[in-house]
Specification:
By secondary structure, the protein is of the alpha+beta class. It contains 19 helices and 23 strands. The longest helix has 17 residues. The two termini are 37 Å apart.
Length: 553
């Protein structure tokens, strides 16, 4: 959980920092700079004294950057300073592209610097052209062993300028000797939407990973492929989405609301308010369920809050993160920048999404109560149809449903046993599963063979028995009751890993969400979402005309 929170924190800072949607060219100070001249002189004196007299040589640039971070840390948890590396990463996230190989990797085992290609490289990417395959283990980069490298170091060494080359050493299942591969880097698109398909006949499912420059266009294309005129329901999955640019939140929401409906408003410290409305709107009115969790932040909360306030969608899952501070990016030159909080966001019903951060940085990020313990305590507002919603603590779902793994499942996930065992399956090392061996032409299977293969990859009782022995060999402590109660979970996780290697991440993901309780609940609730939509289309005449802005004390 701590590792997941750390990743989420980094993504939230990098993505939500672009939330203002533009780059500022100056900082508006709270008063004349002359008022702070003496403090600035004191800071300069201290910096000079430390630089001249500290017990060891110090880097002045590092000292100044640390001082800047410390200053911003006293303001709020989201105002941030970007050094060159962070600023470059921010630009990649915003622009939706980078230069590299086009592979998805993960550590080959906990604590190991080696990494594994976890899904077949997409057609046309440098990795695909060089013949890399899912399951390949990268052991060296530029002839250097990477066993002691951190994942960040591996990634930074695989990336590089377009047209440059990197030589890597891989170990491939079924091949006795390591293989040397030279890959020429190229532009790699970073898709905001990687999973969009019909999860049931005429029921769409779209997973939005982040709000980058291309998100709204990707979403529009995904919905069009599903034929929105015939859709009987859509599940929009914003779980784990840390946010992004405001303009993308507006353009995404615009695809579901009516023209002119309010999406979000902002207010700065002077009380000035900017209101953003759906510029175009949509005529399609299919039922919607939006999935959120405690890691859904900023732009995700603007979208889900607007759809909830207008009764356009039923919100399911956990209370969202609670990040509604307007972040404006100021370029400092030399590929460095500042993300400064310049305002706050409010949903159409005038509720503040931002939760309290007065307890400090650690409390804000790490000591949050689980969503199921959250109780509405903020200001009460009304949706278009008169439903009560609450502000000041994230977006509370209409239907609460946690998706935490049980202790045994969490332990298996942490030990990374599913990927490791699936690797044995596709390598042909499991006698009970000879048909699981990954064929050489897996990436170019004819559709008929592809479907036949999908149907044949069943996690049998014999495979489960072999998996039990595998767990023992890895010194995993378990009981027979553990295995019995979690058998379906184990089958699905193993099948998902195998499908990743055979058919790609999308097919593996389809296997995974068939066992996802929140997704299955969303499908079940589509009739209720339809009824909610119908009520919002015909509001009660006795309702207060400005009901969406009504307040309760």
């Amino acid at each position: 959980m701590r590792h997941k929170l750390s990743i989420f924190l980094l993504l939230t800072i990098l993505l939500a920092a672009s939330f203002g949607g533009f780059v500022g060219d100056r900082v508006s100070a709270g008063g004349p700079l002359g008022d702070a001249s003496e403090q600035l002189r004191n800071f300069t004196r201290v910096l000079q004294l430390v630089s001249d007299n500290y017990a060891r040589s110090v880097d002045s640039e590092e000292l100044v950057e640390s001082a800047i971070r410390g200053m911003l840390h006293t303001l709020d948890p989201h105002s941030s300073y970007f050094d060159t590396r962070d600023y470059n990463r921010l630009q990649e996230e915003q622009q939706g592209k980078y230069y590299g190989l086009g592979i998805t990797i993960r550590a080959s085992s906990p604590g190991s610097g080696r990494v594994v290609v976890v899904e077949p490289p997409a057609p046309g990417t440098p990795a695909q052209k060089a013949g890399l395959r899912a399951g390949d283990v990268i052991t060296r980069v530029r002839r250097e062993p990477i066993d002691e490298w951190e994942m960040e170091e591996v990634i930074s060494n695989l990336k590089g300028p377009k047209g440059s080359k990197v030589d890597i050493t891989i170990e491939r299942p079924g091949v006795d000797t390591p293989m040397e591969v030279v890959v020429e880097r190229d532009e790699i698109p970073m898709y905001a939407i990687q999973d969009a398909f019909l999860i049931r006949p005429q029921v769409g499912y779209i997973k939005v990973n982040r709000f980058a420059d291309s998100t709204s266009d990707e979403l529009e294309g995904a919905v069009k492929k599903m034929d929105p005129a015939s859709l009987e329901g859509l599940i929009l999955d914003l779980r784990g989405n840390p946010g992004g640019a405001l303009n993308q939140a507006i353009r995404v929401t615009d695809q579901f609301l009516k023209k002119g409906e309010v999406i979000v408003s902002t207010r700065n410290r002077r009380g000035k308010e900017n209101e953003y409305k759906a510029p175009n709107g949509s005529s399609y009115r299919y039922p919607m369920v939006v999935l959120i969790d405690r890691y859904s932040a900023s732009a995700s909360e603007i979208v889900s809050g607007a759809l909830q306030d207008h009764d356009r969608a039923l919100i399911v899952g956990e209370t969202s993160f609670g990040k509604a501070l307007v972040q404006t990016i100021y370029s400092l030159g030399d590929r460095k920048g500042l993300a400064l909080t310049t305002g706050r966001y409010y949903t159409p019903s005038d509720r503040l999404i931002q939760r309290d951060y007065s307890g400090g940085f650690y409390e804000y990020y790490y000591n949050r109560k689980p969503a199921e313990e959250d109780k509405p305590t903020g200001e009460v507002r009304l949706t278009d149809s008169g439903r009560k919603v609450y502000g000041g603590g994230g977006i509370a779902p209409d239907v609460k449903l946690s998706a935490e793994a049980n202790k045994f499942q969490a332990m298996l996930n942490a030990r990374d046993v599913f990927f490791s065992y699936a690797h044995k399956l596709i390598s042909g090392e499991v006698a009970a599963a000879p048909n699981f061996k990954l064929p050489v032409h897996a990436g170019d299977m004819p559709e008929s063979e592809r479907k036949e293969r999908m149907g044949s990859l069943v996690i049998s009782d014999a495979i489960l028995s072999d998996f039990r022995e595998f767990l023992k060999s890895k010194s995993v402590i378990f009981s027979e009751e553990d295995l019995e109660h979690n058998a379906e979970f184990i089958r699905r996780r193993l099948k998902k890993e195998v499908f990743d290697s055979f058919f790609g991440a999308r097919e593996g993901y389809k296997v995974a969400i068939e066992g996802d309780e929140q997704v299955q609940k969303a499908i079940e609730l589509l009739p209720e979402a339809k009824a909610l939509l119908q009520r919002s289309e015909k509001p009660d005449k006795n309702m207060v005309a400005s009901g969406a802005r009504a307040h309760y004390n």
